[in-house]
Amino acid sequence: MRKPKPYDYSDPRPPSRSQMKRDSSALQVLGGKLADLPDSALKRLALPQRLDEAIREYKKLTRHEARRRQLQFIGALMRETDTEPLARAVEDMEAGNRTQAREFHEIEAWRAALLLGDESGLEEMLAPVPEQDRAELRSRIRTLARNARTEAEKAKPPRAAKTLFRLLRELRSGVRPLGDDTEAEEGGTPEAAP
């Protein structure tokens, strides 16, 4: 997103109409991104009351033209607000979402490789785990992968695959994944899965 260029007051000329339109459009885009954030994130931003109310009203609207006009109003209100921290907060949240998606895809790739029988990345996954726990984890991962392949062949629900995903996610996040999953490995009812 292009940040609006602040007006340089040392320049004797006023900003051009084109520059004013670009600034207005940039504020509307930022306002739209703010409106797309969940309510919990909006509360953390501590927006001015009028801007907060306008964004909440925008979220209630369903008709295209009404939403467009409300977005213009939000852009106008943002001219009175310091947009630098808001733009930074939106960028940080978008970067966090991209990071989460990248981590999710990485875990999915690990699980897919294990389900295909490729254990070449297993040692990399187990690197942060203390040496004394690696053998047990290696065994659990192999058992879950084998059970997941069996479930897939028999067209059963993917319980072991979901348990394997949770185990890999815990490994990725640095949580010690040595809880008792024997019930899930033996075909019992696992916890809720992703």
TrEMBL record:
What name has this protein been given in UniProt? Ribosome-associated protein
Against SUPFAM superfamilies, the record matches this protein to:
PSPTO4464-like (SSF158710)
Keywords, in A-Z order: Cytoplasm, Ribosome biogenesis, RNA-binding, rRNA-binding
User: What is the species of this protein?
Assistant: Humidesulfovibrio mexicanus
Q: Which GO terms describe its cellular component?
A: cytosol
Name the PANTHER family on file.
UPF0307 PROTEIN YJGA
Which InterPro entries does the UniProt entry name for this protein? DarP, DarP_sf
Q: Name one GO biological process term.
A: ribosome biogenesis
Segments of this protein annotated with the region Disordered: 1-25, 175-194
What residue spans carry the Basic and acidic residues bias annotation? Answer: 1-11
Q: Which GO terms describe its molecular function?
A: rRNA binding
